What does this fold into?
Amino acid sequence: SEFNVEPDTFCWNILLASHTRAKDSTGAFRVFRDMQRFGVKLDAYSFGTLMGLCANNGDTEAVHKLVDLARKENVPGTTAMVDTLVHSYCLNDEPESAKNLVEAATTMNLEGSQTRMWNTLLRYYAFQADSEAVLRVQERMREMSVKPDGMTYAALMTALVVIGKTQDAAQILRSLHFNEHLTATLFHYSIVLHGFALEGNRDMVSVIYNEILERFPRPSMSARLAVLHSQAKRD
It folds into this structure.
């Protein structure tokens, strides 16, 4: 009222996002109901934001209900909305349902990048130390012409670290330096550094950490902790 401006969908979505980032489920749903009550036009971001909150809580049923509501409101589906459902399935240890959904969604003409949903599946198998499943998913991505990104390689490197093959993860890190489309990030370096620290390979911890200091002016907290872990073992 102070500026005589009627809040539009964009304004409401910012408010909705602020509650979800604060992990305030009650506040987020209250804002969502207010949007419905005041006749605000809900869009894919409105639904996707709330779906993401429910997915992080592992509430697959709530995510499904929001998908159904989005259909009733004639809101077109996006890959970001699929991402939340895949994430929810993985949190509930339902990888087969997640895989089936990812493959089906990849064949649809949905707005957004298809890579993230595949990365979620890769990350799940990586932390399960199921390297065979990681390789199967990677091969399926190739067959379906899904372009890998930095997080795809991070998931592969994580899987190798989890099963104690950090040297192989380091080879992937080196290969990124010769990739025309991707660049090795601090996150990739931190994964390898953490792996060598877990294996007690202090020489490689020193090598990777020195490379981090050369390439990145401010090392991440996880990188510094990995070095501390390695030094504590030596002491």
Observations:
- The chain has 13 helices and no strands.
